[in-house]
Amino acid sequence: MLETYRIRGGTASEIAAGVEAAVAAGLLPPGSPLPPVREAAADAGVSPNTAAAAYRLLRERGVVETAGRRGTRVRPRPASTAREEIRIEAPPGVRDLSRGNPDPALLPALGEALAAAARAHARDPAMYGTSDDEELLALAAARLRADGVPEAPLAVTSGTYDAVERVLVARLRPGDAIAVEDPGYPALLDLVAALNLRPVPVRLDDDGPLPEDLDRALRAGARAVAMTCRAQNPMGAAIGAARAADLRALLEARPDVLLIEDDHAADLVDLPVHPLAGTTAHWLFTRSTAKAYGPDLRLAVVAGDPATVDRLRGRQRLAAGWVSHLLQRTVAHLWRTAAVDPPAVAASYGWRRQALLAALAGHGIRAHGRSGLNVWVPVPDETTVITRLLAAGWAAAPGARNRLRTPPALRFTVSTLRPDEVQPLAEAVAAAVSPAAGARWG
Fold first, then answer.
1. Beta 208-209 vs 64-66: how paired, if at all?
2. Of these four, 68, 100, 393, 411, which has the most CB atoms within 10 Å of its CB?
3. Residues 321-333 pLDDT 10s
4. Mean pLDDT, residues 188-212
5. CA-CA distance, 278 to 303, in Å (whole number)?
6. d(Cα 162, Cα 145) in Å, to the nearest integer?
7. Can you tell me the distance from the alpha carbon of 79 to that of 63, in angstroms, rounded to the nearest whole number?
């Protein structure tokens, strides 16, 4: 492919921008080699130091990787290729269970909360330099304390991964290793790639990350650990008390490791949270409103050690500045008025998961879905099963979006699954997998 793309540019930034544009245009597909630094410098007519600086920029942006004797190559998944792009476009007439969204019928109406926020804005408009909403912070602090999160500084961010990105940038450097769940959340895996961090996969069971895998990752030099407290996407795992104790013991021996915990399922599941927060010197505990109150609210409250939260706030001030007080006051009103009934919401999602799990088990297919919105179904081959399901009128999300090293699987979002759909879906999955394969791979 180098025959069709030559290194060009007069500065490191121009060379890096040109290569990145070529990757995006498909001129340099994943795995394509770049010429050695001296050859690239000669092609562009610049010094070797300039070419080396360009390659360094590309590595930091997650576009290329240096693979020893194989030289510098375009990453198998360059940062410009998001895992979210690995998706199925369901044709008309196909029931789409691939999207990962909550049930709109279970989200609270926002009219009264927005009106209350507008009235508060009229009395006391938020201006430049305004701090986070005091009522929201007080309500969040009480909720976090009730769930066992240590008392700590709080911050408000535009969703969980707004906070996670800022903290990873502040605490880690390109090339650092981070332990991540496998299978895990695509947005985190994309972010890790974009920041040129090195993911170290940690397998899960229904009770959360496996201690032996976390121990292996820590011994391998992981400088950070990211995990989900409950309703893990895609497996639905929830960390129980015993597993939390095992994980806590491992982390206590590594106090310098950055711990990031995602509790996006508050007000959504009926399983208690067992936070690990405070086990290490540097930690961040995030709680977003997306799944229980509406994805478009784009708000999360985070707690962490003073230094980590201070760095997060510093980077936030340099970019967005703050989260809209209209949103903050809207969420505070929703919390204050108990606009969501957590037991009812958890029960609604729970029966859907359990019904599908039971129906699949009746066909010899063992799946996962202890909590949350999804059911994770191991399969022998994702492409074959997805194709057969589409022909039968069902669309699932390919597990390739979530996997690093774990075997193939599909994710079904059950948030809107109707009772009359459970058995037909299970029969379609069994037919797509085949009973023998389902028993072997489940």
1. unpaired
2. 411
3. 999 999 999 999 9
4. 94
5. 10
6. 23
7. 6
